[in-house]
Amino acid sequence: MTSPLLTIVIPTVNRAHFVGRAIESALAQDLADIEIIVSDNGSTDGTAEVIARYDDPRLRKYRHTKTMPPQEHGNFLLDAARGEFFLGLSDDDYIEPDFARCAVNLYARHSELSFIYAACTLHIGDVELPALHGPEVEDGLDFIAAFFGNLRNVCWCACVTRVEDLRVIGPIPSDRFLGDMFYWTKIAFRGPVGCIQQPVAHYTFMTADNMSSGIRVINWAREVQTLADESSYRFHEHCRDGVQLGHFDRSVRRFVAISVADQFVWTSIRGAAKSSLLTAAWAALPYYWHQPIIWKRVFAALVIPKTTLRRLVLWKAATAAAAHQRIIRNWRKHLL
Q: What three-state secondary structure class fits 17?
């Protein structure tokens, strides 16, 4: 069979209430040269029945009788991909109909790009917040520096990479949960990074069974620190500007602290016992103690009831979204 340009993979387990939306958004792509792989990782709810409703020549379905670890499942999907490019679409996320076309066209215009990500809409509960993104083409080092400076939001449902690049890096190790960062933090050092400027992807936060928000805080802290250390090592290999290196190192330390503190918040909202959070706060202390401004997030996760904390997060997200819209309106007035 002729290889498609783009493979969209949708891993799922026990997400009957979400997976249909993800599949439909993939099937709605206005680029014909794609394949869609849906892999049911041993669901015991109605997920299999939902998947069975869809019949399309671009769609390939897999059903596993036992639930394998997410890393193993991700490696299975990469092995199954036949396309030149790869998009990992979580079962609770979705994409706009022109996503695939925009990504392929951007690669066609700039063949030197290491990978592509898209402007994205973050759905935090009922609040929509635009993700932070950069220019259409950005130097790889500049992108990495901006990401660890918390100036870029990169969501896996908005990333398109070359299948061959993923395979060269190799399978996701069994002790890694953040498979997206495992790959693109390496690929970005290979060349410029591209960005689709219009918001063509949707990433959902705060679903009750969101996998990333359910990772234990100490495991999250260790992995984010490992990814940050790996990226820092590569950044130092490529950059010889002492001032820029010092700024980057400070940004990395702050990034890790913020990421760990936010994981405390998500874990608390999911209903973790305060006693277990207190234990985690002590175990993860080395990852955030040097950033006193971050302590209040950990403290909030430890003492504020989850319902109140959820309202607080939604309020802050709504405030940020309103501020962003004011900036956009003022920017447009300035142009006119």
A: coil
CB 218 within 8 A of CB 284: yes
CA triple 229-88-172, angle to 5 deg: 45
Give the CA diameter of the chain. 59
Helix (H) or strand (E) holding 121: strand 115-124
Q: End-to-end distance of the chain based on CA atoms, in angstroms? A: 52
236's CB contacts (< 8 A; 6+ apart) are 245
pLDDT digits (tens, 9 = 90+) for 87-115: 999 999 999 999 999 999 999 999 999 99
Going by their DSSP bridges, the two strands 127-130 and 115-124 should be labelled as antiparallel
- Helices marked H in 270-294: 274-283
Helix axis angle, 242-269 relative to 306-335, nearest 10°? 130
| Cα 234 from chain centre | 21
Q: Is the per-residue pLDDT at 213 higher than 60? A: no
Closest CA to 158 of 193, 124, 121: 121
* Rounded (10°) CA dihedral 61, 106, 21, 58: -30
∠ CA(241), CA(247), CA(250), 5° rounding? 140
- Which amino acid type is present at position 192? P
159 has which bridge partners? Answer: 117
For residue 174, what pLDDT is reported? 87
Segments of 25-104 assigned E as strands: 34-41, 59-64, 85-88, 94-95
pLDDT in tens, 31-42: 999 999 999 999
pLDDT, tens digit, for every residue of 259-302? 999 999 989 988 889 899 999 999 999 999 999 888 999 999 99
CB 114 within 8 A of CB 140: yes
